[in-house]
Amino acid sequence: ASKRTVLPSNTMSDIGNGVSAASVLAAMVTFKADIEAVGVRVYMMTEPWWLYDLGPLNTLMRSTFTTDLIDLEPLISGNGTYTNDSVHPNIAGQRVMAAAVAEVLGP
To answer: What digits encode the pLDDT tens for the residues 83-98?
Structure first.
């Protein structure tokens, strides 16, 4: 059986520092291909956001990674219930994210 992994991206810092969504996506595509080349299945995840608008990147991700994508953005983005600092998901947000990952990967 092949190994499985989830690759959460830390794109908020890149986008916040002015890196374009297209540049971040290009790096993600290369990284995913490199990891898969050694036999590891990679699941990409859209990233929830509150402070920086990651919507354009997440849209590009949806059109690029049509399989092996866990779409977290619509589950908790912009909902203040799921963050305490407008950057990181709180426990409630982490639970929603974990449930979405578990739904795709299974137990």
So the answer is: 999 888 999 999 999 9
Q: Single out the residue of 60, 52, 69, 61 nearest to residue 14, CA to CA.
A: 52
Q: What is the DSSP letter of 83?
A: B
Residue with tokens 């908020």: 12
- Secondary structure letter of residue 43 according to DSSP: E
The three-point CA angle 43-19-78 to 5° equals 65
CB-based contacts of 73: which residues, under 8 Å, 6+ apart?
Answer: 46, 47, 48, 49, 54, 55, 58
C-alpha angle 80-89-34 in degrees, rounded to nearest 5: 135
pTM, full prediction? 0.84
Sequence length of the chain is 107
